[in-house]
Amino acid sequence: MIRHRPHGSGHAYEPTDDQIVPATPLAGEAFDVRASTGPDITAVVCEWATGGTVTFLTAAVEADEAPAGDSGGDNDSHLAAAASGVGRGGRRRWVVRPQPLAEGASARYRFTATHADGRTRSTRWYTVAPATWHDGADALTVSGPATRLVPGTARTLRAADGTPLRVRFALRLAEGEHVVGFGERYNAVDQRGVALDSQVFEQYKGQGFTTRTYLPMPFALVIGGDGWGFHVRTSRRTWYDIGATDTDLMWIEAEVGADGALDTHCYRGTPADVLGAFLDEAGRPEELPEWVFGLWASGNEWNTQARVMAEMDRHRDTDIPVRALVIEAWSDEATFTAFRDAQYEVNEDGSAHRLADFTFPADGAWPDPKAMVDELHARGIKVLLWQIPLMKMRPNPSGQAAADAKAMIDNGYGVQEEGGKRPYRNRGWWFPLSLMPDLTKPEAREWWLSKRRYLVDEVGIDGFKTDGGEHAWGADLRYADGTSGDVTNNLFPVEYPRAYGELLRESGKAPVTFSRAGFTGSQNAGAFWAGDEDSTWDAYRHSVNAGITASACGIVYWGWDLAGFSGDVPDAELYVRATEFSTFVPVMQYHSEYNHHRLPLRDRTPWNIADRSGDPAVLDSFRRYAKLRERLIPYLAEETKAGLAENKPLMRGLFFDHTDDPKIWDHQDHFRLGSALLVAPVTEPGATRRTVYLPVGTDWVDAWTGETVAGGQEILREAPLGTIPVFVTAERWPTLKPLFSELI
């Protein structure tokens, strides 16, 4: 078999073995044309026809590159194995390099493969024609009170037939301006001097060493000078060169539709003014219940009722308060709607079940899910269940999973590919070839949610961990609302948690979802965590950046997997430092990756880290901070409400409150938590002190010593393990002192 897809799989960053590279070559630009075969093919020839001349180009076999998604580092996990491309089946990549095509030229081509026994097989004919950049962009608008468009910089990339493909232009950057935003970014807080893009992507681990992200947005604050910001009003892919090439220019490039239209709006004002204007367009965050601010507990191997209750008992017995439990491995791993080991009759039409339809064996994994949830509720613990927006198709589904897949295909409930000719099969590395529900189709949305409704209405769960969301790849995808993949793929992870939020709301519950992926509009789609990461100091530092940048775009309820969730367990120092930091972010939660139930355990529970590290002080430190977190809950709820009214997120970089203080940019890992607290996390191993900058405009009180320090100065703060530098505005100290007094 030989395969060629001119645009490949739609992977945002890595070309596949069967595409043109680049997928849309420019006039005069060199390019490759690739085909993929099995190992039994001995020769491949490309028949290349251009300008009335036919040439036979012999393809060369090229060695495999590192598979897309390979994170490096620890790969001893099921996710790492999937991300590394295991199971490619020994396929080979064949490459030809034709002469570059001139503007206005085109070529027709096909590949012919020769099998070891002499048989041949050819692809169909394809056409390639180069695109060309042209001066001007007639349908570009850059509007608003702070327009910085540089005259003469607008250009349009046009296909050979004249259809617009992209628009490019530049905005002026003044000296001393700092650019923060573009969604959740791990590499840095200030993006000036960086080139990046805005495309939803599942970067499994190592995010901070790239500019890739689960949660991008085509929006940024520009701080300093007059104060402004901008929003590229599109869900298509965009690119930004923020002074990386030209120090005083921000180059913006965006995919466009056939009309070439692109609107970028520029706002003027303080960061809060700019964010508020953006939220008027994107949607405003919704206040969630206070329990969200308590400790969340999770472990991927907590896959039985007995194990879950044992871990919750351990919290009780060690006097560590917990407010929310996330159960990941609860389902049958096929339908993701039925508890593992549950017995029930298959609904052949794919319709929903009720709780009464299930029998739960006494010796099964979940002998009584409702009783479990009721008991947890009696203890003050809320319960969230894990979800994935995919219908698994490998291995071949059976039972209810097969009936659901058939219903999905027969009713057209899935996203389509190849112009709507067939159901889309996930092209990503996680759950490959799965079907994906089309949430733009009301009937599909209702069907998908109806199968989960009993979990909320009858079992009584309180929310969903809406994992994934990054699985829509390719401009060729088609959605029921008439849009194509280039428009709607980035919006899928917005609608996915929103849909589950609707289900919760319809059942009288708050729309608490917990996602890692999103885009513009995710501000009012529940809570978020920073995604999959190893337990390393680098990942910790990058997560601090992620929290500050996500908040700058209006994400209020944000957290991370405390000290990382993957690889070997963190040492005592990293775990305690991560606990200190996590106490002062909006969502405090720990989680651990599946480890095939091997010993020793890789749980990120404080008792397991204490056991594994041999340091019992870990448990004491965690308990102290978990209790502090409990005392902080009323403050966090009050400050969230006030921040929503003032367009200031709960966790926010110092630039929100100290815009005119230039020294804050030397301390970009500092942040405010509400209006009264300043936090400076310790992110270097072995450190027992750190430099802290206290901005001008107020006096500050050291939360641990009660010492008053004047603002506008840099101090060296002692920070032994177990102590994170936290300062309180002097005017709020009298009321907040009791929260910290038990730790002094």
Main beta sheet: strand number and arrangement? 8 strands, parallel, barrel
SS element count, helices: 14
User: Strands of the biggest beta sheet: in what spatial order?
Assistant: 22-23-24-27-28-29-30-31
What's the overall geometry? globular
Average pLDDT confidence is 95
* Low-pLDDT ranges: 66-73
Structural class: alpha+beta
- In whole angstroms, the N-to-C terminal distance is 70 Å
Over all CA atoms, what is the radius of gyration?
A: 27 Å
Number of strands: 39
- Estimate the strand proportion: 15-25%
What would you say about this model in short?
With 744 residues, the protein is an alpha+beta fold.
Which features would summarize this protein structure in a list?
single chain, 744 residues, 8-stranded parallel beta barrel, 6-stranded antiparallel sheet, 14 helices
Describe the 3D structure.
The strands form eight sheets. Strands 22-23-24-27-28-29-30-31 form an eight-stranded parallel beta barrel, surrounded by four helices. Helix 11 packs parallel to helix 13 and helix 12 runs antiparallel to helix 13. The protein starts with a strand and ends with a helix. It has 744 residues and is α+β, with helices and mostly antiparallel strands.
Task: Summarize the SSE layout with pairings.
Blueprint: E1 2-3, E2 20-21, E3 32-37, E4 41-50, E5 53-58, E6 60-62, H1 78-83, E7 92-96, E8 107-115, E9 120-122, E10 126-128, E11 132-135, E12 140-143, E13 155-158, E14 164-172, E15 178-183, E16 194-198, E17 216-223, E18 228-232, E19 238-242, E20 249-255, E21 262-268, H2 271-282, E22 295-298, H3 305-317, E23 324-327, H4 369-378, E24 382-387, H5 399-410, E25 416-417, E26 422-423, H6 442-450, H7 453-459, E27 463-466, H8 485-488, H9 492-506, E28 513-515, E29 527-529, H10 537-552, E30 558-561, H11 572-582, E31 587-589, H12 606-613, H13 617-646, E32 651-653, E33 671-673, E34 677-679, E35 689-694, E36 699-702, E37 708-710, E38 713-718, E39 726-729, H14 733-741
Parallel strand pairs: 12-21, 22-23, 22-31, 23-24, 24-27, 27-28, 28-29, 29-30, 30-31
Antiparallel strand pairs: 1-3, 2-3, 3-7, 4-5, 4-8, 6-7, 8-9, 8-10, 11-13, 13-14, 14-20, 15-17, 16-19, 17-18, 18-21, 19-20, 25-26, 32-33, 33-34, 34-39, 35-38, 36-37, 36-39
